[in-house]
Specification:
Layout: E1 7-8, H1 19-24, H2 26-31, E2 36-37, H3 38-41, H4 52-57, E3 79-81, E4 84-88, E5 91-95, H5 111-114, H6 125-132, E6 139-143, H7 152-163, E7 170-175, H8 177-180, H9 183-186, H10 189-201, E8 205-210, H11 220-231, E9 235-242, H12 250-262, E10 266-272, H13 286-297, H14 302-305, E11 308-313, E12 316-323, E13 327-335, E14 344-348, H15 357-360, H16 363-366
Parallel strand pairs: 5-6, 6-7, 7-8, 8-9, 9-10, 10-11
Antiparallel strand pairs: 1-2, 3-4, 4-5, 11-12, 12-13, 13-14
Helix pairs in contact: 7-10, 12-13
Protein backbone atom coordinates (compact mmCIF):
# COMPACT_ATOMS: atom_id res chain seq x y z
CA UNK A 1 0.00 0.00 0.00
CA UNK A 2 3.01 2.28 -0.11
CA UNK A 3 2.25 5.59 -1.77
CA UNK A 4 4.20 8.81 -1.85
CA UNK A 5 1.98 11.72 -0.88
CA UNK A 6 2.81 15.05 -2.46
CA UNK A 7 1.94 18.15 -0.48
CA UNK A 8 0.56 21.05 -2.48
CA UNK A 9 0.95 24.65 -1.36
CA UNK A 10 0.39 26.57 -4.60
CA UNK A 11 -2.84 26.91 -6.55
CA UNK A 12 -0.85 26.60 -9.79
CA UNK A 13 -0.25 22.94 -8.88
CA UNK A 14 -3.97 22.12 -9.06
CA UNK A 15 -5.04 20.98 -12.51
CA UNK A 16 -8.72 21.02 -11.55
CA UNK A 17 -8.77 24.81 -11.30
CA UNK A 18 -9.00 27.04 -14.35
CA UNK A 19 -6.45 29.79 -14.96
CA UNK A 20 -9.13 32.36 -14.12
CA UNK A 21 -9.92 30.67 -10.80
CA UNK A 22 -6.25 30.50 -9.86
CA UNK A 23 -5.84 34.19 -10.59
CA UNK A 24 -8.89 35.37 -8.64
CA UNK A 25 -8.03 33.22 -5.61
CA UNK A 26 -4.56 34.71 -5.19
CA UNK A 27 -5.93 37.39 -2.85
CA UNK A 28 -7.47 34.70 -0.65
CA UNK A 29 -4.25 32.71 -0.20
CA UNK A 30 -2.37 35.92 0.57
CA UNK A 31 -4.58 36.28 3.65
CA UNK A 32 -5.26 32.63 4.54
CA UNK A 33 -2.64 29.99 3.82
CA UNK A 34 -3.31 27.10 1.48
CA UNK A 35 -2.04 23.55 1.87
CA UNK A 36 -3.38 20.19 0.76
CA UNK A 37 -2.10 16.97 -0.82
CA UNK A 38 -2.73 14.85 -3.86
CA UNK A 39 -4.56 12.11 -1.94
CA UNK A 40 -7.14 14.53 -0.60
CA UNK A 41 -7.53 16.25 -3.98
CA UNK A 42 -8.22 12.84 -5.53
CA UNK A 43 -11.48 12.72 -3.55
CA UNK A 44 -12.85 15.81 -5.35
CA UNK A 45 -15.35 15.58 -8.18
CA UNK A 46 -14.11 18.56 -10.18
CA UNK A 47 -17.26 18.61 -12.27
CA UNK A 48 -19.22 19.58 -9.16
CA UNK A 49 -18.52 23.17 -8.13
CA UNK A 50 -20.12 22.40 -4.75
CA UNK A 51 -18.22 19.20 -4.09
CA UNK A 52 -17.80 19.03 -0.27
CA UNK A 53 -14.13 18.04 -0.39
CA UNK A 54 -13.47 20.96 -2.68
CA UNK A 55 -15.23 23.33 -0.28
CA UNK A 56 -13.21 21.96 2.65
CA UNK A 57 -9.83 22.33 0.96
CA UNK A 58 -9.93 24.82 -1.93
CA UNK A 59 -9.99 28.59 -1.22
CA UNK A 60 -13.05 30.68 -2.00
CA UNK A 61 -13.52 34.40 -2.52
CA UNK A 62 -16.25 34.25 0.14
CA UNK A 63 -13.51 33.87 2.76
CA UNK A 64 -12.68 37.54 2.27
CA UNK A 65 -16.06 38.68 3.59
CA UNK A 66 -15.49 40.69 6.76
CA UNK A 67 -16.85 38.72 9.72
CA UNK A 68 -15.82 37.23 13.02
CA UNK A 69 -12.67 37.24 15.12
CA UNK A 70 -9.34 35.46 14.75
CA UNK A 71 -9.72 33.92 18.22
CA UNK A 72 -13.47 33.60 18.55
CA UNK A 73 -13.30 31.44 21.68
CA UNK A 74 -10.60 33.61 23.26
CA UNK A 75 -8.23 30.68 23.69
CA UNK A 76 -5.40 33.10 24.49
CA UNK A 77 -7.17 33.83 27.77
CA UNK A 78 -6.34 30.33 28.96
CA UNK A 79 -2.69 30.13 27.88
CA UNK A 80 -0.56 29.49 30.97
CA UNK A 81 2.80 28.95 29.29
CA UNK A 82 3.63 29.22 25.60
CA UNK A 83 1.71 26.56 23.69
CA UNK A 84 -0.35 25.33 26.65
CA UNK A 85 -4.01 26.09 27.38
CA UNK A 86 -5.58 25.19 30.71
CA UNK A 87 -9.30 25.94 30.58
CA UNK A 88 -10.89 22.99 32.36
CA UNK A 89 -9.48 21.81 35.69
CA UNK A 90 -8.55 18.26 34.64
CA UNK A 91 -7.57 18.94 31.03
CA UNK A 92 -4.59 20.62 29.41
CA UNK A 93 -4.29 21.41 25.70
CA UNK A 94 -0.81 21.55 24.15
CA UNK A 95 -0.40 23.20 20.74
CA UNK A 96 2.40 21.06 19.35
CA UNK A 97 2.68 22.55 15.84
CA UNK A 98 1.19 25.18 13.54
CA UNK A 99 1.27 22.88 10.50
CA UNK A 100 -1.39 20.45 9.24
CA UNK A 101 -1.45 17.88 6.47
CA UNK A 102 -3.99 20.23 4.92
CA UNK A 103 -5.52 23.54 5.95
CA UNK A 104 -9.28 23.27 6.19
CA UNK A 105 -10.78 26.48 4.92
CA UNK A 106 -13.02 26.70 8.01
CA UNK A 107 -10.16 26.23 10.49
CA UNK A 108 -10.89 27.89 13.84
CA UNK A 109 -7.17 28.25 14.62
CA UNK A 110 -6.10 29.86 11.36
CA UNK A 111 -4.48 32.53 13.55
CA UNK A 112 -1.67 29.98 14.10
CA UNK A 113 -0.89 30.01 10.39
CA UNK A 114 -1.16 33.80 10.19
CA UNK A 115 0.86 34.61 13.33
CA UNK A 116 3.46 31.96 12.64
CA UNK A 117 4.89 30.38 15.76
CA UNK A 118 3.45 32.98 18.12
CA UNK A 119 1.46 30.52 20.23
CA UNK A 120 3.20 27.23 19.45
CA UNK A 121 5.59 25.52 21.82
CA UNK A 122 8.30 24.21 19.51
CA UNK A 123 10.06 23.12 22.69
CA UNK A 124 7.38 21.78 25.01
CA UNK A 125 9.63 21.24 28.03
CA UNK A 126 7.92 24.12 29.86
CA UNK A 127 4.52 22.71 28.95
CA UNK A 128 5.44 19.33 30.37
CA UNK A 129 6.80 20.95 33.52
CA UNK A 130 3.48 22.77 33.93
CA UNK A 131 1.62 19.45 33.68
CA UNK A 132 3.98 17.86 36.23
CA UNK A 133 3.25 20.68 38.65
CA UNK A 134 -0.55 20.39 38.33
CA UNK A 135 -1.70 17.05 39.76
CA UNK A 136 -5.33 17.88 39.03
CA UNK A 137 -4.59 17.37 35.32
CA UNK A 138 -5.42 13.79 34.37
CA UNK A 139 -5.69 14.14 30.61
CA UNK A 140 -3.70 15.99 27.98
CA UNK A 141 -4.85 16.87 24.47
CA UNK A 142 -2.12 17.19 21.86
CA UNK A 143 -3.30 19.38 19.03
CA UNK A 144 -2.14 22.28 16.88
CA UNK A 145 -1.96 22.19 13.90
CA UNK A 146 -1.85 18.44 13.62
CA UNK A 147 0.41 16.41 15.94
CA UNK A 148 0.64 13.59 13.38
CA UNK A 149 2.48 15.96 11.04
CA UNK A 150 5.34 15.83 13.53
CA UNK A 151 8.13 13.34 12.98
CA UNK A 152 7.42 10.02 14.65
CA UNK A 153 10.52 10.39 16.80
CA UNK A 154 9.33 13.76 18.14
CA UNK A 155 5.85 12.44 18.87
CA UNK A 156 7.40 9.40 20.57
CA UNK A 157 9.43 11.67 22.84
CA UNK A 158 6.32 13.65 23.82
CA UNK A 159 4.30 10.51 24.58
CA UNK A 160 7.11 8.97 26.61
CA UNK A 161 7.48 12.10 28.72
CA UNK A 162 3.74 12.28 29.34
CA UNK A 163 3.71 8.59 30.24
CA UNK A 164 6.15 9.33 33.05
CA UNK A 165 3.78 11.83 34.70
CA UNK A 166 1.83 9.70 37.15
CA UNK A 167 -1.34 11.79 37.35
CA UNK A 168 -1.78 11.93 33.56
CA UNK A 169 -4.05 9.00 32.74
CA UNK A 170 -5.22 9.87 29.24
CA UNK A 171 -3.50 11.43 26.22
CA UNK A 172 -5.59 12.52 23.27
CA UNK A 173 -4.24 13.30 19.81
CA UNK A 174 -6.47 15.54 17.71
CA UNK A 175 -5.81 14.83 14.02
CA UNK A 176 -7.25 15.29 10.54
CA UNK A 177 -4.60 12.89 9.17
CA UNK A 178 -6.86 9.78 9.07
CA UNK A 179 -9.15 11.71 6.71
CA UNK A 180 -6.65 13.84 4.82
CA UNK A 181 -3.63 11.52 4.51
CA UNK A 182 -4.24 8.02 5.94
CA UNK A 183 -0.99 6.82 4.33
CA UNK A 184 0.84 8.69 7.10
CA UNK A 185 -0.48 5.96 9.42
CA UNK A 186 -0.41 3.01 7.05
CA UNK A 187 3.22 3.48 6.04
CA UNK A 188 4.66 4.04 9.50
CA UNK A 189 4.80 0.87 11.57
CA UNK A 190 6.93 2.65 14.15
CA UNK A 191 4.09 5.09 14.82
CA UNK A 192 1.74 2.17 15.40
CA UNK A 193 4.31 0.48 17.63
CA UNK A 194 4.45 3.63 19.78
CA UNK A 195 0.67 3.69 20.08
CA UNK A 196 0.69 0.01 21.06
CA UNK A 197 3.44 0.59 23.64
CA UNK A 198 1.57 3.49 25.21
CA UNK A 199 -1.63 1.47 25.62
CA UNK A 200 -0.07 -1.83 26.69
CA UNK A 201 2.90 -0.78 28.83
CA UNK A 202 2.12 2.48 30.63
CA UNK A 203 -1.16 1.82 32.43
CA UNK A 204 -2.58 4.81 30.56
CA UNK A 205 -4.84 5.21 27.54
CA UNK A 206 -4.35 6.87 24.17
CA UNK A 207 -7.26 8.35 22.23
CA UNK A 208 -7.19 9.46 18.60
CA UNK A 209 -9.70 12.26 18.01
CA UNK A 210 -10.34 12.19 14.27
CA UNK A 211 -11.82 14.95 12.11
CA UNK A 212 -13.99 13.36 9.44
CA UNK A 213 -16.23 16.17 8.23
CA UNK A 214 -18.06 14.39 5.39
CA UNK A 215 -18.78 10.76 4.40
CA UNK A 216 -16.68 11.18 1.24
CA UNK A 217 -13.60 11.24 3.47
CA UNK A 218 -14.38 7.74 4.75
CA UNK A 219 -12.55 5.77 2.07
CA UNK A 220 -11.23 2.21 2.02
CA UNK A 221 -7.78 3.63 2.74
CA UNK A 222 -8.92 5.72 5.71
CA UNK A 223 -10.81 2.71 7.09
CA UNK A 224 -7.63 0.62 6.95
CA UNK A 225 -5.71 3.34 8.76
CA UNK A 226 -8.35 3.53 11.49
CA UNK A 227 -8.34 -0.26 11.86
CA UNK A 228 -4.56 -0.26 12.26
CA UNK A 229 -4.81 2.39 14.97
CA UNK A 230 -7.57 0.50 16.77
CA UNK A 231 -5.47 -2.68 16.79
CA UNK A 232 -2.94 -0.83 18.97
CA UNK A 233 -5.61 -0.42 21.66
CA UNK A 234 -6.10 3.26 20.85
CA UNK A 235 -9.68 4.44 21.26
CA UNK A 236 -11.05 6.44 18.31
CA UNK A 237 -13.53 9.30 18.49
CA UNK A 238 -14.64 11.83 15.87
CA UNK A 239 -15.62 15.47 15.97
CA UNK A 240 -16.65 17.86 13.23
CA UNK A 241 -18.22 21.28 12.91
CA UNK A 242 -21.52 21.62 11.10
CA UNK A 243 -20.55 23.37 7.89
CA UNK A 244 -22.85 25.18 5.48
CA UNK A 245 -22.75 23.62 2.03
CA UNK A 246 -20.71 20.65 3.27
CA UNK A 247 -22.61 18.67 5.90
CA UNK A 248 -25.54 20.86 6.96
CA UNK A 249 -28.28 18.42 6.04
CA UNK A 250 -29.71 15.51 7.99
CA UNK A 251 -28.91 12.84 5.39
CA UNK A 252 -25.22 13.76 5.32
CA UNK A 253 -24.94 13.88 9.12
CA UNK A 254 -26.85 10.61 9.42
CA UNK A 255 -24.51 8.89 6.96
CA UNK A 256 -21.42 10.37 8.62
CA UNK A 257 -22.21 9.38 12.21
CA UNK A 258 -23.56 6.01 11.15
CA UNK A 259 -20.52 5.12 9.03
CA UNK A 260 -18.23 6.25 11.84
CA UNK A 261 -20.03 3.98 14.29
CA UNK A 262 -19.80 1.07 11.82
CA UNK A 263 -16.01 1.33 11.86
CA UNK A 264 -15.76 1.74 15.61
CA UNK A 265 -15.16 5.48 15.68
CA UNK A 266 -17.40 7.06 18.31
CA UNK A 267 -19.26 10.16 17.03
CA UNK A 268 -18.29 12.61 19.78
CA UNK A 269 -19.11 16.23 18.97
CA UNK A 270 -20.94 18.12 16.25
CA UNK A 271 -19.69 21.68 16.72
CA UNK A 272 -21.40 24.92 15.87
CA UNK A 273 -18.95 26.57 13.46
CA UNK A 274 -17.02 29.20 15.41
CA UNK A 275 -17.40 32.82 14.22
CA UNK A 276 -13.79 33.05 13.08
CA UNK A 277 -12.48 35.49 10.47
CA UNK A 278 -13.07 34.07 6.99
CA UNK A 279 -15.68 31.54 8.12
CA UNK A 280 -19.00 33.24 7.43
CA UNK A 281 -19.55 31.08 4.34
CA UNK A 282 -19.52 27.99 6.56
CA UNK A 283 -21.64 29.22 9.47
CA UNK A 284 -25.17 27.89 9.97
CA UNK A 285 -28.01 29.29 12.04
CA UNK A 286 -28.22 27.48 15.36
CA UNK A 287 -31.97 27.03 15.38
CA UNK A 288 -31.97 25.49 11.89
CA UNK A 289 -29.04 23.25 12.78
CA UNK A 290 -30.85 21.81 15.83
CA UNK A 291 -33.47 20.39 13.45
CA UNK A 292 -30.77 18.90 11.20
CA UNK A 293 -28.97 17.23 14.11
CA UNK A 294 -32.11 15.85 15.72
CA UNK A 295 -33.46 14.48 12.42
CA UNK A 296 -30.14 12.72 11.80
CA UNK A 297 -29.98 11.32 15.34
CA UNK A 298 -33.53 10.00 15.09
CA UNK A 299 -32.52 7.74 12.19
CA UNK A 300 -29.50 5.98 13.68
CA UNK A 301 -28.75 3.56 16.51
CA UNK A 302 -27.90 4.80 19.98
CA UNK A 303 -24.22 4.21 19.27
CA UNK A 304 -24.26 6.90 16.59
CA UNK A 305 -26.95 9.06 18.21
CA UNK A 306 -24.83 9.70 21.32
CA UNK A 307 -23.06 12.53 19.44
CA UNK A 308 -23.52 15.93 21.13
CA UNK A 309 -24.23 19.24 19.38
CA UNK A 310 -22.09 21.85 21.14
CA UNK A 311 -20.38 25.23 20.95
CA UNK A 312 -16.81 25.79 22.13
CA UNK A 313 -17.46 29.17 23.71
CA UNK A 314 -15.01 31.28 25.68
CA UNK A 315 -16.88 30.37 28.87
CA UNK A 316 -17.00 26.63 28.19
CA UNK A 317 -18.38 23.87 26.04
CA UNK A 318 -22.10 24.58 25.74
CA UNK A 319 -24.45 21.82 24.63
CA UNK A 320 -27.36 22.90 22.43
CA UNK A 321 -30.21 20.79 23.76
CA UNK A 322 -33.35 21.74 21.85
CA UNK A 323 -36.07 24.31 21.36
CA UNK A 324 -39.79 24.97 21.62
CA UNK A 325 -41.84 27.46 19.64
CA UNK A 326 -40.64 30.24 21.93
CA UNK A 327 -37.45 29.14 23.67
CA UNK A 328 -34.08 27.48 23.13
CA UNK A 329 -32.23 25.40 25.73
CA UNK A 330 -28.52 25.17 26.52
CA UNK A 331 -26.41 23.48 29.18
CA UNK A 332 -22.76 23.79 30.10
CA UNK A 333 -21.24 20.43 29.19
CA UNK A 334 -17.86 21.73 30.44
CA UNK A 335 -17.49 25.08 32.16
CA UNK A 336 -14.38 27.20 32.61
CA UNK A 337 -15.79 28.63 35.85
CA UNK A 338 -17.08 26.33 38.60
CA UNK A 339 -20.20 28.46 39.05
CA UNK A 340 -21.34 27.51 35.54
CA UNK A 341 -20.78 23.75 35.89
CA UNK A 342 -23.86 21.95 34.59
CA UNK A 343 -25.78 25.21 34.34
CA UNK A 344 -29.03 24.95 32.36
CA UNK A 345 -30.04 28.03 30.36
CA UNK A 346 -33.23 29.07 28.63
CA UNK A 347 -33.44 31.95 26.17
CA UNK A 348 -36.10 33.41 23.96
CA UNK A 349 -35.48 32.17 20.45
CA UNK A 350 -33.40 34.18 17.98
CA UNK A 351 -33.75 32.60 14.51
CA UNK A 352 -30.77 34.56 13.17
CA UNK A 353 -28.36 33.42 15.89
CA UNK A 354 -25.06 31.86 14.81
CA UNK A 355 -23.34 31.86 18.22
CA UNK A 356 -24.11 31.88 21.93
CA UNK A 357 -23.36 35.60 22.15
CA UNK A 358 -26.30 36.27 19.83
CA UNK A 359 -28.48 35.23 22.79
CA UNK A 360 -26.48 36.61 25.71
CA UNK A 361 -26.09 40.07 24.16
CA UNK A 362 -29.85 40.35 24.55
CA UNK A 363 -29.86 38.66 27.94
CA UNK A 364 -31.82 41.37 29.74
CA UNK A 365 -34.73 40.93 27.36
CA UNK A 366 -34.44 37.24 26.52
CA UNK A 367 -33.26 35.24 29.49
CA UNK A 368 -36.03 33.61 31.50
CA UNK A 369 -34.04 31.82 34.21
Amino acid sequence: MERKINYITKLDQISGLSAEEKEELKEVVKKFEFRTNDYYLSLINWEDANDPIRRISIPSLAELEVWGKLDASNEKKYIKVRGLEHKYKDTVVILTTNVCAMYCRFCFRKRLFINKGEEIALDISQDLEYVRNHPEVNNVLLTGGDPLILSTSKLEKILKELAEIEHVRIVRIGSKIPASNPYRILEDEHLLDIFNWFNSSTGKKLYLMTHFNHPKEITDVSKKAIFKVQKTGTITYNQTPILKGINDDADTIKTLIEELSFMGVVPYYLFQCRPVVGNKMFSTRIEDTIDIVEKARSQVSGLAAKVRYVMSHETGKIEILGKTDEHIFFRYHRAAEEENAGKFMVFKRNPEAHWFDDYTELVAEYKVN
